[in-house]
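If you are new to this repository, start here. Below is one unmodified record pulled from the training split, so you can see the exact layout before writing a loader.
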Amino acid sequence: MSMKSSLIATLVDAAPELKPLLSEHIQNNDDLLPHVFFGDLTRFVQTEVERENFGPVKRILDVLEDAAKSTDPAVRDLLGASFLENIELDSRGWQEMLRLAGPAMKVVLARERQRRQNSN
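And here is the target side for that same chain:
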């Protein structure tokens, strides 16, 4: 199992709410496509933040904390290109994500938010 597949399995174990999303993803794509699934994951997290359902978001961020510390370029690319770059939150949503995140995820979330503010 690749590091990316292992990360996704860990995410689904930590947040069983993702099981239907993963099943649908595999059914639609005939396989696990990590970058595509992380797009689905991003939309799931955004929706849960908007609904103020922070339990699954916290568990997902806890798993992504390890990804944020990873030295594996494929895992870091998955986190950066397919999660951080696609997340669209209002300022309150960003604050909630930063509040829930562990130290390494706080850094990458803050860096992404700063990058966007600088490009506007």
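Two things worth knowing about this chain: The chain has one domain: 3-119. Residues 3-119 form one domain.
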